[in-house]
Amino acid sequence: MRKDSDYKEKQKELKKARKAARKERREYIKGYMHYGFAVGMAAVFALYCSGRVGWFLVLMLLLAPVVSLAYVLIFRIRGAVTWEAELQGDTLNKGEQCKLILRMHNHTFLPTPTLRVEFFGLPAITVAEPVVYLSVMPRQTTEVSAVCTGKLSGTTMIGVTAVELCGFFGTGNIDLFDNEVLQGSNRHVGIVPEIADLTSEGEYIRAVSQAALGNDDSEDTLETVNYTFGGFPGYEHRVYQPGDPIKRINWKLSAGREELFVRLDETRAGSGVAIVLDPCIMTWGTDVVGAKSRTYEAYEDDLELDAYLQQDTLELALGFMRQLLAKDLAVLFCYWKPLEKTWEYVQVADESNLKQLTAQLAYYFFTKSTDVTRIPDVITSGEAGINAMLYLTPCLDAELANQLADMNRGEDFTAALYVTLTEGGSLL
Question: Are 139 and 166 in the same domain?
């Protein structure tokens, strides 16, 4: 999880965002002030220097916004200016960059007024220069781009939030396109999650792994053992670790090596343990100040909080999976696909499978829809042979708590819950 240094860095980012917003407001105010100052100077010139020339300048300055507005409205005619967007690089690792290119086409015989283009990026991605200015010559094409850097794992979006025709002295800006048209510029970007480096193992992980390891009641028989050249059964072996079933110890091999070895066979690799990722993130109305740890205190709105919770939940799930793989347990990973509205099941048996899953989760996102099955049917029905489950949720809500409480699979089923918001895990 992030340390205090990350918390302080987030505070700096928030201060920088507020500073940028204040700077933009000052720019608008400055435009009106400059216009007023120009009119005032022309009036002073008329009163004290040359009345005819001075009052002519005053008249021209007073008419300038009207002329500017009329000129700007010419380009509001449908088809006068068109655009197209292109995304270069749609899958990133954290820290890598992509580029959203916006091409503006001027179909008139007049140069456009100054265009103000504003790009946006959801909290998981950072836009280097969110506001750019340009002008397009008659019957020409000009392109501008926004360089974006991946910050948080999971799916995110970048696009254009406004294209404005700037009036005289920056006054009277008019939207060139409405929001529905600009939604066509939105592009999804997938940011590959990292695998959390978990240095300690919680009691809930030990309970889940022990339940999965203890699920295999098969016995060695002459029919099931294939002998190899060395005279030992054809199983792979590793050194005994606390929590391994005693029945898996190969006593003959251990006696010859003076160290306990346990055998790994297909039954062991197919043990019934699952990691389930909650489809929903329900932070609406959550008292995050009172419910969360200091790690999440810096986030002022639900959108930003959700992005960080999404990242941490994904990366913790991968970290827990690596811990289970280290115990030679294959894991059934269950996650919801919001667009298809169905559960996806991925069998992870080794590190290569884990890395493939990591790439798949670059486009994962949690939903706020309530019309979702929070627990997969293969878990509740028992048809997949799962007898141990670790359930990860960004934020525990009352509906999920009730569903987990009602899930009763008997004494042979072990379930654990980890809540990212409170940074705590427990057995159910």
Answer: yes
Phi first, then psi: give them for residue 401, nearest 5 degrees: -60, -40
Beta 174-175 vs 141-150: how paired, if at all? unpaired
Give tens-digit pLDDT for 140-186: 999 999 999 999 998 899 999 989 888 766 666 788 888 888 888 89
Q: How many other C-beta atoms lie within 10 A of the C-beta of residue 333?
A: 21
Query: Is residue 295 domain-resident?
Result: yes
Q: In what order do the strands lie in the sheet with 125-127?
A: 81-88, 97-106, 141-150, 125-127
Question: What's the average model confidence in pLDDT over 410-414?
Answer: 72
Query: What secondary structure does DSSP assign to 367-398, as a single string?
Result: B--SSS-SS-HHHHH-TT---EEEEEESS--H
- Taking the CB of residue 296, how many other CB atoms lie within 10 A of it? 23
Consecutive H or E run containing 150: strand 141-150
Cα separation, 135 vs 110, whole angstroms: 11
Where does residue 139 fall: left (phi above 0), alpha (psi -120 to 50 degrees), or beta otherwise? left
User: Does 365 lie in the same domain as 306?
Assistant: yes
Q: Which pTM does this prediction carry?
A: 0.71
Least confident of 25-39, 263-277, 398-412: 263-277
Q: What is the dihedral of CA 238, 240, 246, 249, to 10 degrees?
A: 40
User: How many distinct structural domains can be found in the chain?
Assistant: 4
Query: Rounded to an integer, what distance in angstroms lies between the CA atom of residue 322 and that of residue 335?
Result: 17
Cα–Cα distances (Å) from 394 to 34, 43, 250, 390, in that order, read 50, 64, 42, 13
Report whether pLDDT(285) > 80: no
Q: Answer whether 344's CB lies under 8 Å from 334's CB.
A: yes
- 184-193 per-position pLDDT tens digit: 889 999 999 9
